[in-house]
Amino acid sequence: MVFLLIQGDTLLMKRLVVSTALLLICIMTLPMIVGILTIKSTNGAPTTDWWSSFRHDPAHSGYSTSTAPRTNQTLWSYTTGDDVWSSPAVVDGVVFVSSGDGKVYALNATTGAKIWEYVIGYYVSSSPAVVDGVVFVGSGDDKVYALNATTGAWIWEYETGDDVSSSPAVVDGVVFVGSDDDKVYALNATTGAKIWEYETGDDVSSSPAVVDGVVFVGSDDGKVYALNATTGAKIWEYATGSYVDSSLAVAGGVGFVASYDGKVYALNAATGVWIWEYETGDSVGSSPAVAGGVVFVTSYDGKVYALNAATGVWIWEYDTGDHVGSSPAIADGRVFVGSYDGKVYAFGNPYTTTVGGEIVQTSFITRLIVPAVAIVGIFVAIIVLAFVRIKPSKQTQTEPHKT
């Protein structure tokens, strides 16, 4: 019917073309409008798909500017010979992970195919750190290993006095790692030679965070330590109420850490002075993640918590229904965490994304303008059509009756 009305009517045809073009322009400009309204200064921050060590970086932010999955589709799986407690490192298209079967694996990140494996022979729960083509990892045989990231070949090993479940941090050519012999070690990344050691009062399962020349680490003696990265000298210590297996996340001059006393602490990174604490419903062995002014942490009470980084005020919580020992990971505006209920959870909202290395939530105005533009475009098209005078074509006009 519409075709018959416009057939032969050039004016109507032109108006239909114009209105259709207007509608298409409105639809095509929606993504650009969203981008303009959510842009923040990037300050040169790169967007990269890498996760080179436990908790992503030496500050243990647990936050990456990389993209994140939108579905739970399994792309591949690889079966090792025992439990996998290690967190994978992902660098240059390769996944590095250790296993309780006593091996360290390098897997193709796209296919899951094994590239190489290195046999240590003892249970390995330490998470690998990959820096400058070298894989650093601790082991249940009391040693720290350095392996060639391309081939898996042995480079060096250093023997501590007990199990090494702590995950190494590598900064400026130095490997920082804890051991169950109660000590924190600094090792030369090239040779494995010991630079210094610091003895705490109990096992050190916590993985060191290194920021601005300071090593931050927890101990089963219930304390958090700040050590000079060059000399190992103690700068300050802070006593919590129980074991500290959690690793500190350091952001904005504040160290965030959890304890088996069930609390999350915010400490001044320079002085160790208490800023705030938040009490969960059970022990906390996980490590906090920080992004966008929010601290994310899990607890054995089964919950995931979001806290204001400046004040410690509760923002939200989610109850998984089972213990949660997993440390949150943040990417592309979403928080990912695993639970003892066997599930992996992703938290976020449709208006959250990552821009310039920050979590950005589009404003109310953005959410109002975007659909408004689409509505206006449709309205304009309707108006154009409504005022078109539909006239019969010359072919359908009849001669007037003559009398």
Structure in words:
The protein has 403 residues and is an alpha+beta fold. It is built from three helices and 30 strands.
What is the gist of this entry?
With 403 residues, this protein is α+β, with helices and mostly antiparallel strands. It has helices at residues 2-6, 10-38, 364-386; strands spanning 63-64, 89-91, 94-98, 103-108, 114-119, 129-131, 134-138, 143-148, 154-159, 169-171, 174-178, 183-188, 194-199, 209-211, 214-218, 223-228, 234-239, 249-251, 254-258, 263-268, 274-279, 289-291, 294-298, 303-308, 314-319, 329-331, 334-338, 344-347, 352-355, 358-361. It has a domain at 2-41 and 364-396.
**Unreliable segments (pLDDT under 50, ≥5 consecutive)?**
1-6, 32-47, 351-366, 389-403
Main sheet makeup: 4 strands, mixed
Read across the widest sheet, the strand sequence of neighbours is 1-26-27-28
Cα end-to-end separation: 34 Å
Q: How many helices? A: 3
What's the shape? Answer: globular
Structural class: alpha+beta
Write the layout of secondary structure elements.
Elements: H1 2-6, H2 10-38, E1 63-64, E2 89-91, E3 94-98, E4 103-108, E5 114-119, E6 129-131, E7 134-138, E8 143-148, E9 154-159, E10 169-171, E11 174-178, E12 183-188, E13 194-199, E14 209-211, E15 214-218, E16 223-228, E17 234-239, E18 249-251, E19 254-258, E20 263-268, E21 274-279, E22 289-291, E23 294-298, E24 303-308, E25 314-319, E26 329-331, E27 334-338, E28 344-347, E29 352-355, E30 358-361, H3 364-386
